[in-house]
Amino acid sequence: MALSAPDLSTRPIGVFDSGIGGLTVARAVSRVLPHERLVYFGDTAHLPYGDKSTAAIQAYSVKICDLLLKQHCKVILIACNSASAAAYELVREYVGSKARVLNVIDPIVAHVGATYANRTVGLIGTKQTVNSNVYRKKIDDLDVGVELHSLATPLLAPMIEEGFFNNTISDNIIRTYLTNPLLENIEALVLACTHYPLIKKQIADFYQGKVDVLDASDVVAEHVRHYLKENHLAAKAGSTSPVHHFYVSDFTSSFEQSTRIFFDQEVQLEHYPLWE
Ligand code: DGL
């Protein structure tokens, strides 16, 4: 007798990041897809990824995928821009047919290609994301005449993590970066880092409506929604809300308190010592 195929729609979506910043992506996904159960993993033991080598991020990412596969995730979403830049291809190969792998770069690249042909677009992110040149390569492959100007802004993620946003100190740092000549004459700015949705308003205020500020987390969440629907993987509405799990490789109460900043509500972090 032939075995019937398992119903993948009931399985969770795995989301991983270098730490808790990826909760901005998880939050956007849970808003757009309220019936999906999330298994989140933040590699707080190795944060930040933005300053790590490609080889190190690849090794961490593969190990995290083992955990998410053990949890039977139907989709693994790499919420971290730095990990998406450094490890997406490798992770996809590693995971094979065991789960679908999505990243946070492709949806924004498609959006930029569709909206800003023959225009100049800026991008800010970590050193790893910017130096990998992955956005430029993918945008150039579209061949629609988008000129991309990328600037590494490594102070922004730790600044936000320490709660420094919507104040004069962060205003000054943001202004210093955004007045860099590299970002002159752009028509849109891609926020290519998990943390930057929290300073979207400050950045938009700086540009006073002259530059479109593109929040990748919203674009990515919408992409995940389409992807699940097209691939018949979307969870059906249940009578109760799904119970998410949030794992971290190193636990501190300060990480737990910071979840409020990134997820809009404080969530309970579970310590999963993946590296011991
Ligand atoms: N999650 C990282 C990213 O989106 C930012 C924080 C880090 O450097 O680990 O690139």
What descriptors fit this protein?
single chain, 276 residues, alpha/beta, Rossmann fold, 2 domains, 6-stranded parallel β-sheet, 4-stranded parallel β-sheet, 16% strand, globular, binds D-glutamic acid
Strand order of the largest sheet: 4-3-1-2-9-10
CATH architectural group of the largest domain: 3-Layer(aba) Sandwich
Mass-distribution shape: globular
Biggest beta-sheet profile = 6 strands, parallel
Bound molecules: D-glutamic acid
Low-confidence stretches: none
What fold name goes in the CATH topology slot of the largest domain?
Rossmann fold
Estimate percent helicity: 40-55%
**Assembly state here?**
single chain
CATH class of the largest domain: Alpha Beta
**Helix count, DSSP H or I runs of 4 or more residues:** 11
Question: Between the first and last Cα atoms, what is the distance in angstroms?
Answer: 43 Å
Strand-residue proportion: 15-25%
Give the number of DSSP strands. Answer: 10
Descriptive notes:
- With 276 residues, the chain is α/β, with parallel strands linked by helices.
- The chain folds into 2 domains: 152 residues, Rossmann fold, CATH 3.40.50.1860; 111 residues, Rossmann fold.
- Helix content is 43%, strand content 16%.
- Strands 4-3-1-2-9-10 form a 6-stranded parallel sheet, sandwiched between helices. Strands 6-5-7-8 form a 4-stranded parallel sheet, sandwiched between helices.
- Helix 1 crosses helix 10, helix 2 crosses helix 3 and helix 4 crosses helix 6.
- The longest helix is centred in the N-terminal third of the chain and has 17 residues.
- The structure holds D-glutamic acid (DGL).
